[in-house]
Amino acid sequence: MRVGAKIADEKKVLLWGTEIPAGTIGKGELGIYAVVNMEGEITLVADLQLKSYKVLDIYLRGGMEGTIESDLTTLSADVGVRIKAGGKVISKKFTLMDEYYSLWKLQKPDMAGFLIGMEEVC
Hints:
The chain has a six-stranded antiparallel beta sheet, with no helix packed on it. It is 0% helix and 69% strand. It is built from no helices and six strands.
């Protein structure tokens, strides 16, 4: 059994930005953003736009993850950190890194899977 909830609210803040002349095309806009969401995930983002077309979008994302699972015989819990890096150039997506580092694990018998019978002995 797995229980989870996601809240999609996030805050995006421009850390640095500039305009780049692009000759006859016009100008490009380069920006680096920090994004924090309600799940505690922090993302650093760099993107480059020419006119209204996003040419480059690169991200580095990190956050805590936790899972609790039970199959009615074993209870397992895990808390760790996930780091992802990747992006998109024009329409080609790529992943540079997707790593999970476990910080704490617990595994023990879950008594919900057992039946206990009581008998009177005289």
